[in-house]
Amino acid sequence: MKTILVYGDSLTWGSMPGEPKQHPREVRWQNVMANELGDKYDIITDGLRGRLTAYDEHLSDCNRNATQTLPTALYSHAPLDLIILFLGTNDMQPHIAGTSIAAMQGMRRLVTIVQNHVAGPDFPNPKVLIVSPPKLCKTHDEFYTGFFNGTIEQSYRLAEYYDQIAQEKNCSFFDAGSVAQTSPKDGVHLDAQNTINIGKALAAIVKEILK
Questions:
Q1: CA separation for the pair 101, 45 (Å, rounded)
Q2: Protein fold of 2-209
Q3: Can you give the pTM of this predicted structure?
């Protein structure tokens, strides 16, 4: 049995675009991936809406800074064979950090945490798969337009930067934007077909990583 921790934000939680609802379980990408992989893989989901790589959100009633919460998750779910880090969109909110470079720096820190974490004397560190979220797109939703004002262009650089980190840190990388697009309903989240696309694509990559 291979154990995989999926660590992400609202794209992993399953937020539907343009409305405060969650996609059905069978549509969420990690469950699609699990179905493709079969019963030899145990998928643990940790999806927190609004989660950031390495930054604080002082308006939130929970801790969204992954650098502070990831070590506990690694310890809690050990031993792990693989962790999938699917974050970065929220970092690009202007009141948080506002740039893809900031998200890159945060993701580098998360990978470093995983690769240096000690969950137990006999537990090897899990392999790491960095997933770059699909690019932001234009929307008429006033709330999301304000939250991500001026950062659509920044999101176009994120995959390039994450790929650089993967090479630097000797881990795996996948650009979710190669198989999925955000919905113009809010410019951030994914419709059912696009989240399904990510799950199917990642299943093949995970098999290759853990073969």
A1: 27
A2: Rossmann fold (3.40.50)
A3: 0.97
